[in-house]
Automatic annotation (TrEMBL):
Source organism per UniProt: Shewanella inventionis
Record's protein name: Transposase InsH N-terminal domain-containing protein
PANTHER family: TRANSPOSASE, TRANSPOSASE DDE DOMAIN-CONTAINING PROTEIN
Highest taxon in the source lineage: Bacteria
Ranges for domain Transposase InsH N-terminal: 21-101
Pfam families: DUF772
Length: 110
């Protein structure tokens, strides 16, 4: 009987990942991050937040915009699916800086 190595594809593995190396120049994700970080003025969002002295820290509008647009580009239109992608998809983790918003974090964006 043939002796094959076992298929371990359904097991989890801890792998060190450098998120900044996942977004390669020339890709949609790179262009998305560059435009949002360098070309858009998102300072209008700052007026909405009054949590500098009290309250929890808010998710960055730039990060939320990147996550939403990346989700839409991948056909994800549900906030739950986008949130799940931020937890499980390396590309979403890289674009978001490993921010994983839950469903309550989407108010004002979707």
């Amino acid at each position: 009987m043939a002796n094959y190595k076992p298929d371990l594809s359904c097991q989890s593995k801890f792998i060190p990942i450098n998120f900044s190396e996942q977004i390669l120049p020339g890709t949609f994700e790179y262009a998305l991050c560059y435009i949002i970080e360098n070309k858009l003025d998102l300072s209008g969002f700052d007026a909405w937040y009054h949590n500098d002295k009290t309250g929890a820290a808010a998710y960055s509008p730039a990060v939320m915009l990147k996550i939403i647009l990346l989700g839409y580009a991948h056909g994800l239109i549900s906030s739950r699916r986008i949130a799940k992608a931020c937890e499980h998809n390396i590309l979403f983790m890289s674009v978001s800086g490993d921010v994983q918003p839950h469903n309550n974090g989407w108010h004002g964006f979707l």
